[in-house]
Amino acid sequence: MKNPDVLVAGAGPGGCASALGLAGRGAEVLLMDPGPARQPYLSGEWIHPTGVAALRRLGVEFDGAACAHHRGFIVHPPDGEPPITLEHPGAMALSMPHQELTAALLRMVVDHRGITLLSGHRLLSATEHGLAQTTDGHFRSALVVGAEGRSSAVRRALCPTESAPVKLSRTAGIVLPLATLPTEGYGHVVLGAPGPILLFRLTPDRIRITFDIPMPGPSRQTLIRHLLEEYLPHLPGALRPAARIALTSRLVQWASNTYRPRDFHGRGRCALVGDAVGHNHPLAAHGLSLALLDAEQLAEAPHLGAYRRRSRSTSWAPTHVSAVLGRLFLAPDALSADLRRSLFAEWRSSPVRARQAMRQLALLDTRRWPLATTFARTAGRALTDSGQSNLPALPRRTRELLAWGGWLGRTHPPYTEGAPRDHVS
């Protein structure tokens, strides 16, 4: 029986950050790295300013050759409406290939005297008493950290009967070299296709484009044709030829987007971080930043209960922001479209409210009441506009908005097209 103080399963950004944070506080850490995936997959590449600050507190800095910096987002509404620019307040986001961020953190892990990196092995099961079965034998630890993402073996061992996560959408991702964004220094959210399109500079010489395809969507055999016919026309004209080549050449990475509430952080001597805790729609790009914050909060917490409370407090608002954006930008119903237009009008009419929205999106403000206030203002504007255009429909629209607000007020509000009614209203 081997007995490190801490065993961390999974050597992605969340696992590496957990190992570095815990070792920095004197723990003897064993980090298990199963090795690269056999097939390249689409994973987190955008780090919000709060996540960037967490990396810097670990001592991680990136030069301009490896990453791109962003001042915020530009939202392109459908139907030719003017774009809306949302600035990060006094901070910059960062993007870079997921594997390069992982490689940089692994180099720090190797150099740390308190961490042993065990490559080519993975955790198979664990108990709440700190016993772990791995492909390298059995371990007993004061703390086992599950940082293996959505398929966490630690979580499966602790919750063997829990239901599968809710399916939200598929994402197709392509990379265009030597391409130019409509406005550099920003991520771009393009609406008008069946699902949102996200464009951002991944590195100084590459652009990432992701296409979000709502469930159930077309068959797997027709996905590329669907993207060419329904999404490509909404891209800026200068990007379409290169995007068409990437799609028709099958140079596409895929991800399945699912929802699991961030309400289980572990039990006993087992803790979870990142997507192993829970996850939501990727449009808000919170996953990577939340993983880094989880790792930091776990290292600082005196016990699991303290970590659980702090992580839940930090992630409540981001979870709801992700749910709202997913519903506003994916839901086909008229009410969600009205609320989307009302939200855009709020952003255009009030720079203060636009900055507050970006503070929530960037995890700089994780309080609950600003999100509730934003919904109340947006719903009020939508109700006023509805009353002006169709007074007899006002009572029905009021009931619909109250139901929408009830959905938002739930602890964990997923949304998928075609989901059971109690997920939607």
What does this structure look like?
The chain has helices spanning 13-23, 49-58, 98-111, 153-158, 223-231, 240-248, 287-300, 304-330, 334-349, 351-361, 369-389, 394-409, and strands spanning 6-9, 29-33, 46-47, 68-70, 72-76, 84-87, 93-95, 115-119, 123-126, 131-134, 137-140, 143-146, 166-177, 186-190, 197-203, 206-214, 253-259, 266-267, 270-272. It has 425 residues and is of the alpha/beta class. The strands form four sheets. It has a seven-stranded mixed beta sheet, with helices on both faces. A hairpin with a 2-residue loop joins β18 and β19 (270-272). α2 packs across α7 (287-300) and α9 crosses α11. The longest helix is centred in the last third of the chain and has 27 residues, at 304-330. It is globular and about 70 Å long. Mean pLDDT is 88; it is low at 416-425.
Give structural attributes:
6-stranded mixed sheet, single chain, alpha/beta, 7-stranded mixed sheet, globular, 425 residues, 19 strands
Number of strands: 19
Main sheet overview:
7 strands, mixed
What gap, in angstroms, lies between the N and C termini?
52 Å
Helix content: 25-40%
Evaluate the radius of gyration. Answer: 22 Å
Structural class: alpha/beta
Strands of the widest sheet, in order across it, are 6-5-14-15-16-13-17
Beta fraction = 15-25%
Averaged pLDDT: 88
How many helical stretches?
A: 12
The stretches of 5 or more residues where confidence is low (pLDDT under 50) are 416-425
Shape descriptor: globular
What secondary-structure arrangement, pairings included, does this model have?
Elements: E1 6-9, H1 13-23, E2 29-33, E3 46-47, H2 49-58, E4 68-70, E5 72-76, E6 84-87, E7 93-95, H3 98-111, E8 115-119, E9 123-126, E10 131-134, E11 137-140, E12 143-146, H4 153-158, E13 166-177, E14 186-190, E15 197-203, E16 206-214, H5 223-231, H6 240-248, E17 253-259, E18 266-267, E19 270-272, H7 287-300, H8 304-330, H9 334-349, H10 351-361, H11 369-389, H12 394-409
Parallel strand pairs: 1-2, 1-12, 2-8, 5-14, 12-19
Antiparallel strand pairs: 3-7, 4-7, 5-6, 9-10, 10-11, 13-16, 13-17, 14-15, 15-16, 18-19
